[in-house]
Design brief:
3 helices, 104 residues, mainly alpha
Length: 104
């Protein structure tokens, strides 16, 4: 019984060898699609968050809390300016790297 079980396991191991070799010889896994992730965030998540901020601002303005609305609006505008600045620096940095190293 033990001999037949070992023979069966050895047969399974030799049957699986080409599959393992084929899996290790394949191309490396793809890099994470960061462009798709950024595109998803920019087109789906950001408009929803801005709409939520708009509803909050309108509800505060309806209650007469104009100073809180103006403060929150200024903070949101400064935050957007930082995000736009970071994007601009990213593209500026990429352009400098391409200029220095000559890559396209």
């Amino acid at each position: 019984m033990i001999v037949s079980t070992l023979a069966h396991l050895a047969g399974l191991a030799t049957d699986a060898t080409p599959v393992v070799a084929q899996a290790t010889a394949s191309e490396p896994p793809e890099i994470i699609n960061t462009t798709g992730i950024v595109n998803f965030i920019a087109t789906k998540v950001t408009p929803i968050l801005l709409a939520i901020l708009g509803v909050i601002f309108i509800s505060r303005a309806g209650k007469g809390e104009m100073s809180k609305v103006l403060t929150s609006s200024a903070i949101a505008i400064v935050g957007l300016a930082f995000i736009v600045g970071a994007g601009a620096l990213f593209f500026l940095g990429e352009g400098l790297v391409n200029l220095i190293f000559g890559t396209n």
